[in-house]
Structure formats: structure tokens, C-alpha cells
Amino acid sequence: MLIDPRTDSRALGLYVHFPWCIKKCPYCDFNSHPLKESTDQGAYLDALLSDWQHQYELLGEGRLAGTPLGNFTSIFFGGGTPSLFKPDYLHALMNEIPSLGAETTLEVNPGSAEYFSFEDYKAAGINRLSIGAQSFSNAQLAALGRVHQMQETLQAFERARGAGFDNINLDLMWGLPGQTVAGALADLQQAIDLSPQHISWYQLTIEAKTEFARRPPVLPKDGFLQDIETAGLALLADAGFERYEVSAFARPDKKSIHNLTYWSFGDYLGIGAGAHGKIGVEHRVVRTQQPSQPRLYQHNPRTIAPVPVNTEQRALEFMMNTLRLIDGVEQSIFEERTYIPWESIQTVWHELVTLGLVASDRCAPTPLGLRYLDSVLERFL
Ligand SMILES: C[S@@+](CC[C@H](N)C(=O)[O-])C[C@H]1O[C@@H](n2cnc3c(N)ncnc32)[C@H](O)[C@@H]1O
Ligand code: SF4
Questions:
Q1: 272 alpha carbon to ligand 2 midpoint, in Å?
Q2: What is the pLDDT of residues 90-134, one digit of tens each?
Q3: Which CATH entry fits the domain spanning 310-381: 1.10.10, 1.20.1070, 1.25.40, 1.10.3470?
Q4: 235: left (phi over 0), alpha (psi -120 to 50) or beta
């Protein structure tokens, strides 16, 4: 790891959003819209380039000068389904972005494999893939409204390896409609058998305004969910995957640098429709957010106005992120990234230590605190 964003505040990430998918999944509340024949990817590339230039002048230039090589530490193409973005366009964008040495991730939906070649993405500078497997049961994939079957996930993984990708994450979800403990473990085992470097294992949540919220599927009961979680965590640990965040598991040295930046309240810029950024400038923390609607965004991608984050919000956001990390961060990072003295939260922290919910010597949760994270965070409201 060139820079560890948990300890080194010079780290700087870049998030690039691609807001289209082949079809909207019924559980998903990400900013994604069905891709149409008429979707003009060239116009979106122009908007991204213009957005990048603007943010570079506004925030990036000075901030990048403070990173060790003047480059981003990590770049993340997320979505939506950025594997639908034409590789030539990705290439054109990457040519403009200081990326040498950066962990550069692309999210891939296995159902989009016919639209691209992994070799092209490699040539464009992508060095990490995050493949949305979700499940290896075709019945589950159908229930989740996915556009692919498990065979396509296996093929995508093989092709990615064949193209030389040696840093791959698999996204899996658990607690799926009608899922049994055996079914969830079979999914995990299949993922482990592929030997990825990283597994993200998310519990399915029903998000407001999604198809699943309108027509809720029957999910496993709480007792089952607990059994799935306990058995799944043991399986991942036995297979040598270290749990370093609530839902993230990695082989040694393969933690996601980009996600560690978010989880340690580090700095990142965000370009693209609906993209967020967060950056510390001159003892202030500011946020940026682009309009979610691709049409609105493309109409004027140079409108972002950084908004300062107030003191209470800064403390809460810091805790919401860092306490998801199993090992947390050093307490000194709190002041470094929020510009608030640790002493101002000392009393609350001490109470939480006494309750056995957080560590005394680090800004980190205990296993009990991780389980009751919402209650811990309430103390910072
Ligand atoms: C932007 S998507 C990943 C890339 C690509 N769009 C795909 O789905 O293959 C990010 C990941 O978040 C997870 N996710 C999305 N909605 C979720 C939900 N409601 N509950 C739990 N995990 C969810 C899925 O595992 C998904 O792969
Ligand atoms: S493919 Fe990914 S981003 Fe698109 S709707 Fe499905 S889960 Fe959401």
C-alpha cells in the first residue's frame, strides 16, 4: 500500500460515477437509471471531463500537490454499471487524471460482459475489479432481478484472471428472500473457491422507494439471519479473509484503499451524476454533491459549490465511518480530520469505554460496540 489512508492524511481518492444499468434491480437505491439506445455516452464523457477540470481547479490542484507523488491514492469507477462505459471513453478520462500508482477499481456487472473486454480495461489503467456476483444460485439471482446467471459470473471471473487482473473483489449479498443458512454458506464457499483477493458480504437491506419496499419479499427470520452471520464470519475467517470493516473481508494487504479512505474520514473528490466529495481545506471540512439526474448533470457539470460541514456533523460523520472499521483508527486522527479537539468528546468516549462498547486507547469499536453500532452512534448525535 503506497499510502495507508487510515494513518496518512495526505491520501486523496477520486470517485467517478456512471449512472446507468442494463436494468434496475428491485432492491437497489443507488443513483442508476436504465441504459437506453439513445443514451449518449460521448456527451457523458464530455461532462465528466469538464467536471474534472472544474473540480481540479477548485479543490484538486492544491490538494494533489500535498500527496506524495502528486497523484490520487485511489480511483473508483462506481455506479450504476461503469462496465457499460465504453473502454475508449474510460481511457480518455484516465489520460487526464493523475493516477500513477493509484489503486484503480472498476465495478463490473457480470451481465454486462458482452459490452467490453477486460484487456481494454487493463489498457485503460484499471488494476482492480469489483464484480457484482450477489449470489451463485440462479433462483436467487432471478428473485433479485439480476440480468445474469451464475455461469456468467464464473466466466467473467475467469476472463478477468485471463486478462491479468490479480486484485479482484466479489460482491455478495446475504439474508436473501427465502435463503437458508446452507444456501448462504454455499454462496460464500463458491466465492471463496474462486480465490478472489477481497469479498464484500452485504446483508440485504430493504431501501425506501425501491421495488422491494413497494412489494416486500419474504426475508429470513432474525434467528436465521443471526445463524447465517455467525457461520459466514467463521467460514471467511477459516479461509484466510480478514474482516476489516462490517461487510469487508480481505486477504493480507488487499484491503480496499479507496474504501479505507471513506471509512477513515479521509479526503476524496467525486465526479459524475450524483457524486459526492469530501475534503478538508484550511481547517474546514467541505462537501460537494452533483445533481443526480444525468440530464441535469450533463446540462452543467461545473456547478458544484463546496458546502462546509458543521462541528456536530463532522464529529458524527467521523464516528459513523471509523467505527465501522474493526481496528478503527488512532485517536489523533479525529482532530487531524475533523479539526475538533479529542477532549471535546472525551466524556462521551469515557462513558462508552465503561460500557465496553469502544476501545480505551484507539478510536475503535469493541465486538460488542460493533454489534450495537447504532446505539454507540446515537451518543454523538
Ligand atoms: C453499485 S453496486 C455494484 C456494481 C453493479 N452495479 C452490480 O450490481 O453488479 C454495489 C453493491 O452494493 C450491494 N447492494 C446494492 N443494494 C443493496 C441492498 N439493498 N442491500 C445490500 N447490498 C446492496 C450489491 O452487492 C452491489 O453489488
Ligand atoms: S446493477 Fe448494480 S447499480 Fe444497477 S440497479 Fe443493479 S445493484 Fe443497482
A1: 16
A2: 999 999 999 999 999 999 999 998 878 999 999 999 999 999 999
A3: 1.10.10
A4: alpha
